[in-house]
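ok so for the tutorial part 2 we go from a plain amino acid sequence to predicted structure tokens. step 1 is just haveing the sequence, like this:
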Amino acid sequence: MLVANYKQMKYTVICKKETNYKNGCSPLFIRFTHNRISKYVSLGIAVPPECWNPEQQTVTADCPNGRKVQLEIDTKLQAYEKKIQRLEALDIEVTFDTLLENKGKRVNCTVSDYFTQLIERLESVEKFGSAVKHKVNRSLLNQFKPNVRFMDIDLTFLNDFELFLRRRGNKNNSVATKFSVFKAVYNKAVAEGIFIPKDNPFIRFKVSRLWTETRKRAIAKEDIHQLVNLPIVKSNRARYRELAQDLFLFSYLMAGINFKDMASLRHSDIYNGRIYYKRHKTGKEMNCTLIPKAKEIIDKYKNPTCNNSDYIFPILNKNIHVTEQLIYNRTHNVLAKVNRELRSLGEKIGLNVNLTTYVARHTFATVLKRSGVNIAIISESLGHSDLSTTQIYLDSFENSQIDEAMKNLL
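step 2 — the prediction. this is what the tokens look like for a chain of 410 residues:
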């Protein structure tokens, strides 16, 4: 009996005897099974039901044109076997999508064309941050080699593209970020049947080697006090400076909340002395105690005529920023201005760290750790791209433990 199994993808040949054509024959199908879900693909072959051996999954000896029919069956099965083996060799998961690709492959699709398709998809589901990363990659690839096709991408191409990025001033982690996007797009193109590669150059081009550990971004508690007490000279040129100072402190006091989540906070998110919000990055529901100094910052920006649906900070306007694209554009622009002012403030108090809103998140974690909080709750090193592990640690402890620990922040 033929039962092929590749990484949990099984397939068998069956005769659908319940379907009977006028000539008395029944169609043969390949039944693919993956994660207990089955899909059927017609072999385009029909035989008399009595001429099919279900145990051996072959035609019987007395089947009309039996040898020719069996050869046709075997040829089509071997084609699927080769494709499965090729997917595994390319380190691509064997699934219904990758194995049973759609017909009508866009063999003339350039890498830039496919990037454009993905960007449109991302923007259609309002993933504008990810879309921007893809646009950057598309632009760089077009500058490096316009109209390149996926079949032209090999190890030499990848090495030359890395050299191109470094000559433009990209450091290790910046190069790694761009190659991570490029690799994901390449594998998606394979999975969607845009092209069938002879080999996968990303197997030999190790993106992981490009990542390097960066210097710790946290600052000391004493630096926080200096930053808080630093007088701000108000002017039109530096109108974001005071906001930058307040947002940094608010993030630090409120469990390292990031800029996008701060910008999205509304007065309705405050309830019973706590702030509740959903992280944009992970979708995780978060909440933490609103300590007095953080409440002072909120009250500072509270308009007497505001209502619960208004944003807490003067970044977004509910009457103006009504779409995800407008919200993304506004937060992106304000973040750049806030970080510019933070760099200036950091220089004024003599920091050797490039002060940004993200430093507040690192500092929150580091200060709590130095105050005796279990490292399972707050990790000293948060990393650059994935903070979900830290949030999982937080979830495993009672809010009261976190609230008690946060008393050490000032």
